[in-house]
Amino acid sequence: MAWYEIPNTNAVSIYSALLFGVLTVVFVFRLWLKATCGKFESKVRMDGKTVLITGANSGIGKETARDLAKRGARIIMACRTMETANKARDQIIKESGNENIFIKKLDLSSQKSVREFADDINKSESKIDVLIHNAGYANTFNKTKSVDGIEMTMATNHYGPFLLTHLLIDLLKKSAPCRIVIVASECYRFCRLNLKNLNPIDTMPGYLYYVSKFANVMFGLELARRLKGTNITVNMLHPGMIDSGIWRNVPFPLNIPMAFIKGFFKTTEEGAQTSLFLACSEDVKNISGKYYLDCKEWDLQPYIIEEDKHKILWEESAKIVKLTEKDPKI
Ligand SMILES: NC(=O)c1ccc[n+]([C@@H]2O[C@H](COP(=O)([O-])OP(=O)(O)OC[C@H]3O[C@@H](n4cnc5c(N)ncnc54)[C@H](OP(=O)(O)O)[C@@H]3O)[C@@H](O)[C@H]2O)c1
Ligand SMILES: *[C@@H]1O[C@H](CO)[C@@H](O)[C@H](O)[C@H]1NC(C)=O
Ligand SMILES: *[C@@H]1O[C@H](CO)[C@@H](O)[C@H](O)[C@H]1NC(C)=O
Ligand SMILES: *[C@@H]1O[C@H](CO)[C@@H](O)[C@H](O)[C@H]1NC(C)=O
Ligand SMILES: *[C@@H]1O[C@H](CO)[C@@H](O)[C@H](O)[C@H]1NC(C)=O
């Protein structure tokens, strides 16, 4: 006699018991995810502050803009797709009653676009209190080149923000104390950035997105170091696994299991919490060069905090984005 007893061993009841078990596990797991999701509860206001957010037309960026609008901030949405940007802006103004929401065209994958955008901002804005590098692009299975001949993921996620930060640094210094927030990702753990192959256009098919997020963390750490003493803080974050547009390029048939797995991901609103925390919280006013997850400081792996490697990435990136003598140095 077994220690358990199956009351009615027909297949239907076994399957329904199994299904019940699976659903219970799924339910408990979802509850656990909700419970551990870091939330920025503070009611702190952002009246009189200007926040520049890249990729604010969708996903986490849009939720970040929506929340900051409700806190009274003046918001510059730096976007590539005007259609969705206009829709997002209208919706945010309607919901928040805050009319100080502006859209500026920015394609981070194009150095020309980044330069035009930065010129415009430099001329039209008197200060930036928070710069949020949020925009991101992933297309692991279809490698393309930017107009500048750079692998598209690295061009959008690393080189664009690197160039933009340089071109806005004078304005940021004028605005100090101010903050730079970089939306990176825990998936940096899945790869290593090869410093001998910084424009991986013909190699490493699967790793481009992870590599660009690895570069985000290295860039943030080096930027924080270079900006020490300027009252400009730089912090990085992982937003969590979020059900957003970033998965839109996952091809068939991988998109089928993906649709199921995404049911466990956080919402974009939950995904915006750590960005909001780093943009607004008094707790991190004097903190720089740190990495956050669920609104809490989080450790980085030893292989990503090696300073000599950050310096190499910095120097090589400066060449790839063609920084000139006339451009500001950081
Ligand atoms: N979702 C996750 O699970 C997850 C996890 C870790 C980190 N992240 C990071 O979170 C950030 C936000 O992503 P998301 O999840 O909210 O995805 P999303 O909904 O796809 O949003 C990405 C945003 O970036 C913009 N963008 C893409 N390429 C651009 C370019 N060349 N120039 C200007 N903007 C560009 C997109 O604009 P278009 O609408 O024009 O494409 C969109 O607004 C990214 O940095 C991503 O790497 C996300
Ligand atoms: C790959 O991307 C290019 C440029 O965006 C696009 O024209 C092409 O249709 C894509 N190919 C596939 C197989 O998705
Ligand atoms: C920004 O504008 C100031 C003058 O307002 C100018 O001195 C500076 O060179 C400009 N910076 C860039 C990167 O264009
Ligand atoms: C940074 O802020 C401190 C405290 O407000 C101030 O004393 C100092 O002069 C500032 N430094 C710079 C470089 O602006
Ligand atoms: C931040 O630094 C300033 C000056 O260096 C100090 O006056 C202030 O108390 C610090 N704030 C926090 C929250 O640590």
UniProtKB/TrEMBL annotation:
An MF annotation (GO) of this entry: oxidoreductase activity
Which Pfam families does the record match to this protein? adh_short (PF00106)
Is Oxidoreductase a UniProt keyword of this protein?
yes
Transmembrane: present as a keyword of the record? yes
- Alphabetical keyword list: Membrane, Oxidoreductase, Transmembrane, Transmembrane helix
Segments passing through the bilayer: 12-33
Which CDD domains is this protein grouped with? retinol-DH_like_SDR_c_like
InterPro entries the record matches: NAD(P)-bd_dom_sf, SDR_fam
Put simply, this protein is called Retinol dehydrogenase 14
* Species of the source: Chironomus riparius
Q: In the record, what lineage is assigned to the organism producing the protein? A: Eukaryota, Metazoa, Ecdysozoa, Arthropoda, Hexapoda
